[in-house]
Write a structure and sequence with these properties.
homodimer; 249 residues; alpha+beta; Alpha-Beta Plaits; 2 domains; ten-stranded mixed beta sheet; 5 helices
């Protein structure tokens, strides 16, 4: 058996998320179907670093899988890339040691979130940015986002009923700037792990602060109180991108 | 009667082009259907500045139409924008004089064309840039594109059988640079008018030159010979954008 690590990009619009679910179109299912064909009809299971939700995009999702043979990585990348549907691209494939695990090996993830503040919204970006055509105090949002950097218990920013016990995570970067797209804001978050819906809840809260319906100090209040009711709504998935994953060692 | 000028943006992916055709989904039909609703069920015909083909996008298409009443332009814009499908946006509406004509009033058009040179191609841009994952000599293309600026007979760059008699047009800008998207080239062409498929034929020829399969001097040869057979293939429509139209006066 040889273990392979691959970087995958996808347009999340037409997927019910990354993870396989019965009777739904998922990224995992499409890649496993292609790997089965490339593996003489023998099933191959893939493990993804993160489970992106329906509508969420990826430029840097990482997966690993095992194949019986040692293959040329560029040929394998090309075969996977061309045989998966056109809303999935296989950016790179490399050999890794047998103990590499896309999900459990320590890593730092970066998510980006695009918000189209134009009025009207850009019809060409309707699946690739969340529209927010209302007044925004960018400076207040930049003050607020800075409170998210550091090691905190992010219970207040995760979905109620999350099954993870330890909700302490470290965010090493949380920034807001204008993107290279017209009238579009770019949020960037890097950290050692993110809870379910954490990024979308942070963005939804920051937009509410920017719109003047919550004070900047709401962020530290949500962190210390761990009260999801104090946070803003969950931002729509179409603005969210899993941008990059960097593994330790 | 009051005449209105509107600027329209659309994602061309799901349209059979701008111009109305039987049994096809077109931009013109969608806007006219919405205007009929906003005009008490009375049909309203629109006139577009340019007829974009299937798959071609627009940020700055201009239309004009007449309504019996003098309406508030922002209310009309908002009504049109929200009632047209989400792949059309109405950017602005203004009152214009009765002799304004979106197509026949003198104007300068700007087209942009995006080429994704990444390997693999970006799955999120598959409808918004033409993929060309082959070697390109950018400098050769920049030398070649400069030959297009000026007043020329562009017969060699239009579709065979075009019905327009006078094929002399003036191009005031023709540039090639890296766009703000990763691994994506941006062609920009401005001029007083473009022939049918002219921009896509110019881009197809420039890509062939960049790929080393035609010399830089092929451009002046096509212009002077007026021979379509000497030009490259027509580039795919998904990279083309009608960016802006500026009227004289």
């Amino acid at each position: 058996m040889t273990r392979y690590k691959a970087i995958i990009a996808y347009d999340g619009t037409a997927f019910s998320g990354f993870q396989r679910q019965p009777h739904k179109r998922t990224v995992q299912e499409e890649i496993e179907t292609t790997l089965l064909r490339l593996n003489s009809g023998q099933p191959v299971l893939i493990q993804g670093a993160g489970r992106t939700d329906a509508g969420v995009h990826a430029y840097g999702q990482v997966i690993h899988f095992d194949l019986p043979q040692l293959r040329d990585t560029e040929k394998l990348r090309f075969g996977l890339d061309t045989q998966t549907p056109e809303d999935i691209a296989v950016v790179s494939v490399e050999h890794v040691s047998d103990d590499f695990h896309a999900r459990y090996q320590k890593h730092r993830k970066t998510y980006e979130f695009l918000v189209d503040v134009g009025r009207p919204k850009n019809p060409l970006m309707r699946h690739y940015a969340t529209s927010f055509p209302y007044l925004l105090d960018i400076e207040a949002m930049q003050q607020a986002i800075a409170y998210l950097v550091g090691t905190h218990d992010f219970t207040g920013f995760t979905a109620a009923g999350s099954s993870v016990d330890n909700k302490v995570r470290t965010i090493t970067r949380a920034t807001l700037e204008w993107s290279s797209y017209p009238n579009t804001l770019l949020f960037t978050f890097s950290g050692n792990g993110f809870l379910y819906k954490q990024v979308r809840n942070m963005v939804g809260t920051l937009l509410k602060i920017g719109n003047g319906r919550m004070p900047v100090a709401q962020i530290p209040l949500i962190l210390t109180s761990k009260d999801r009711q104090l946070a803003g709504p969950t931002a729509a998935p179409n603005g969210l991108y899993l941008k990059e994953i960097i593994y330790e060692d």
